[in-house]
Amino acid sequence: MKAAAKVCANIALIKYWGKVSTALNIPAVGSISITLGNLWSETEVEFDESLPSDTLILDGQSRLDQLGRVTECLDLLRVRAGVEASARVVSHNNFPTGAGLASSASGLAALTIAAARALALELSPRSLSIIARQGSGSAARSIFGGFVEMHAGSTPDGSDSFAESLLAADTWPLEVVIAVTERGEKSVSSRAGMEQSALSSPYYSDWVATSTVDLDRGRRAVLGRDFEQLTNVAEHSCLKMHAVAMAAQPPLVYWNATTVACMHVIWDLRHSGVPVFFTIDAGPQLKAVCAPGFSQEVEKALRDVPGVLETLITGLGPGIIG
Ligand code: PMV
C-alpha cells in the first residue's frame, strides 16, 4: 500500500478565484491553465494500519497546517477503496513552496495520484481531477498537460466540476519565465483570500458574472493559437482578479514593488515587438508567458529588474510525469 507520483504545476491564464462550496471546494468560475514542464511535485504515500493518524512531511518538514486538506483528499480515496488505514505522506517540490508558484496544484494532484496508486484504485482522469479539486481547486488542472480547461460545473455535489485537456503541449509550445521576487510563503493563502474577496469585495459579483465571457475568449484564443488575443484576455483576467482582491476588506495586495516593476518591463518588451504577457497568482511572483523562442530574451530583461531574486524558465509539460 505504498506508491509515488510526480506531477507538474500549472498556472491559470483565465483565473479561478472564489467558490460556491467551501466544503466540496467547488469553484465559482471556470479557468484555463497551462501545465509547466519544469516545475513539479513528487509525492509518496504509504497507508499503514499501525499509524494513529495521517502525517505529512513537505520539503523535509512536518506540516500540520497543511494536513487538513491532505486528509480530506485521502478520505475520498479511502472510502472508495474501503480502507481505513492512515497514511504517511512525504512530498517534495523542486521550486519554492506556498509562494504563489502553484505548489498546491502539483502537490495535491501528486498526492491524489500516489494515493490512488497505493490503494490500487483504477480511476479515470476525470475522477482524479474531481478528487484533486477537493484538495486544491487548481490541482484539478494538473492531472492534464498543455492547455487545460476547468469547468466550474453546476451540480451541488461537484460531479461536473472537473478539468479536461484543451490543447496538447506540443501543439503550441509557449514558454514561461518566472521572476521570483520573494522566497517566503505568502501571508494570506488563496483559500483565505478567496473567502475574504467573496465576503467583502464589491467587485466579486461582477467578477463571477463576467467570467464566462473571459473563458470563451480564452478558449477561442488557445484553440486558434492566437497569441495576441490570449495576451489581451489573460492580462485582463489576472488584473481583474487582483482588483477584486485589492477591493476586499481588509485589502489583499499580493504584489510587491518588484512585481509591479516586472509588469512594466513586460509591457515595454511587448511595445518593442516581443510577444509576451504576464500573469500573477496569489503571491508576488510574476509569470511571463511568451511565444515559442522568446524566453531567453524575456528572461534577460526580467533578471535585470532590481529585486528579482531568481528566474526560472519552463516550457509546457504533460501533467503526470512519473
Ligand atoms: O488552488 P487554489 O485553491 O490554491 O487556488 C488557486 C488560485 C489562483 O492560483 C490564484 C488562480 C488559479 O486559477 O490557479
What does this structure look like?
This protein has 322 residues and is α+β, with helices and mostly antiparallel strands. Helix content is 36%, strand content 25%. It has nine helices and 13 strands. The strands form three sheets. Strands 1, 4, 5, 6, 7, 8 and 9 form a seven-stranded mixed beta sheet that branches. A four-stranded antiparallel beta sheet has the order 11-12-10-13. A hairpin with a 4-residue loop joins strand 2 and strand 3 (26-27). The protein is globular, with a radius of gyration of 19 Å. The chain starts with a strand and ends in a 7-residue tail after the last strand. The model has no long low-confidence stretch (mean pLDDT 95). The protein binds (3R)-3-hydroxy-3-methyl-5-(phosphonooxy)pentanoic acid. (3R)-3-hydroxy-3-methyl-5-(phosphonooxy)pentanoic acid is lined by residues 12, 15-17, 31, 104-105, 136-138, 190-191, 281-282.
Low-confidence stretches: none
Number of strands: 13
List ligands, each type once.
(3R)-3-hydroxy-3-methyl-5-(phosphonooxy)pentanoic acid
Number of helices: 9
Percent in strands: 15-25%
Overall helicity: 25-40%
Alpha-carbon distance between the termini?
17 Å
Q: Quick one: overall form?
A: globular
As a whole number of angstroms, the C-alpha radius of gyration is: 19 Å
> If you average the pLDDT, what whole number results?
95
Order of helices and strands: EEEEEEHEHHEEEHHHHHEEHE
Q: What structural class should be given to the helix and strand makeup? A: alpha+beta
**Largest β-sheet summary:** 7 strands, mixed
